[in-house]
């Protein structure tokens, strides 16, 4: 194992989950879901049962591995649930590619992994944030979502406002950007040139080499047919109405150097959200915020869980006594 491989294994390989589930969505599609129970040795079974839950939805061309830093940090005292979107990671591809399908899948994961009445922080990055918005009015989402974190995402005009191509805004840039992002071309192996392209398009200029390598391996592992199919969903995305249905406290995180979803999207979300819990703009950070600024993203999730999910100790103890006496 090379030094780079050792660093990647240490930082970017998610820990083994406590449970692996195959969850069936509304149309029969199956989803790979991982549940990480708290590993704090001081916590007893009752304490683990009362650990606040966090659900993580990754973005386009990524997988559960994208959340490795958050899983490692949060599983100490949270129940962390991560799943692979359709066609990504270990979830099989599906002919259904739409925001409705994304919402169906998130609902299915929430219902399969959370007990009746159990609520969670739901965090979504990029297409994962769009998944959250698409599900905002769904019954299962409203029953289980206590708070939301939206990272590096937008609700509409993704291609028109992307700055991946250094051209003036307008029809030509939009047309060219759509063809670049929606290309059928294979990405091929992770080479030095591939790393430079990925870094330019998706990450900040000061991103560490191991961060770039980790993101490149994750993105290049996505099948090109899956990448192509979901690019069209993103091209036509219009979830502005769904943002206004997101009624739980919602924090927004964005990188100022994000070329895929520039900060204009985050600011628009913050203005439209019924209950915005703050907008954090990370100077010099690109699109891959959970990897580029893992501590900030993890801290925002912790803050939301502490404020909106974690129950007072007395309440938790009282409920355990009731269960034991039942």
**Radius of gyration over C-alpha positions, nearest whole angstrom:** 19 Å
Low-pLDDT stretches: 312-326
Proportion of residues in β-strands? 15-25%
Fraction of helical residues? 40-55%
How many alpha or pi helices?
A: 16
What strand line-up does the widest sheet have?
1-2-4-3-5-6-7-8
Largest sheet: 8 strands, mixed
CA(first)-CA(last) distance: 54 Å
The pLDDT mean sits at 91
**Number of DSSP strands?**
8
- Tell me the series of helices and strands, N- to C-terminal: HEEHEHEHEHHEHHHHHHEHEHHH
General description of the model:
The protein is of the alpha/beta class and 326 residues long. The chain has helices spanning 3-12, 45-49, 68-74, 99-113, 127-134, 139-144, 158-161, 171-181, 192-202, 209-220, 224-235, 240-243, 263-272, 289-292, 294-308, 313-325, and strands at residues 19-24, 30-36, 53-57, 79-83, 120-125, 145-151, 250-255, 276-282. β3 (53-57), α3 (68-74) and β4 (79-83) form a beta-alpha-beta unit. α1 crosses α10 (209-220), α4 (99-113) packs across α5 and α9 (192-202) packs across α10 (209-220). The longest helix is centred in the N-terminal third of the chain and has 15 residues, at 99-113. The protein starts with a helix and ends with a helix.
């Amino acid at each position: 194992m090379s030094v780079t491989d050792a660093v990647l294994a240490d930082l970017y390989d998610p820990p083994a989950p406590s449970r692996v589930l195959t969850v069936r969505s509304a149309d029969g599609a199956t989803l790979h879901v991982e549940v990480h129970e708290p590993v704090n040795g001081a916590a007893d079974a009752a304490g683990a049962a009362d650990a606040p839950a966090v659900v993580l939805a990754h973005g386009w061309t990524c997988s559960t591995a994208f959340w490795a830093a958050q899983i490692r940090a949060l599983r100490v005292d949270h129940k962390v649930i991560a799943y692979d979107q359709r066609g990504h990671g270990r979830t099989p591809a599906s002919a259904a590619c739409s925001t409705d399908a994304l919402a169906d899948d998130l609902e299915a994961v929430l219902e399969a992994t959370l007990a009746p009445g159990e609520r969670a922080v739901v965090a979504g990055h990029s297409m994962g944030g769009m998944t959250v918005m698409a599900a905002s009015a769904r019954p299962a989402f409203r029953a289980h979502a206590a708070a939301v974190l939206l990272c590096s995402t937008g609700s509409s005009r993704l291609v028109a406002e992307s700055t991946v191509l250094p051209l003036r805004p307008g029809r030509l840039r939009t047309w060219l950007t759509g063809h670049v992002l929606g290309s059928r071309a294979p990405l091929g192996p992770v080479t030095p040139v591939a790393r430079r392209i990925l870094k330019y398009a998706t990450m900040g200029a000061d991103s560490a080499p191991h961060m770039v390598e980790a993101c490149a391996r994750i993105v290049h592992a996505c099948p090109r047919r899956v990448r192509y199919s979901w690019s069209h969903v993103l091209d036509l995305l219009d979830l502005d109405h769904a943002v206004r249905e997101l009624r739980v406290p919602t924090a927004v995180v964005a990188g100022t150097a994000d070329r895929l979803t520039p900060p204009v999207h985050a600011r628009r979300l913050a203005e439209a959200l019924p209950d915005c819990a703050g907008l954090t703009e990370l100077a010099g950070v690109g699109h891959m915020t959970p990897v580029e600024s893992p501590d900030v993203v993890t801290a925002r999730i912790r803050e939301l869980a502490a404020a909106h999910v974690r129950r007072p100790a007395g309440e938790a103890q009282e409920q355990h006594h009731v269960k034991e006496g039942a």
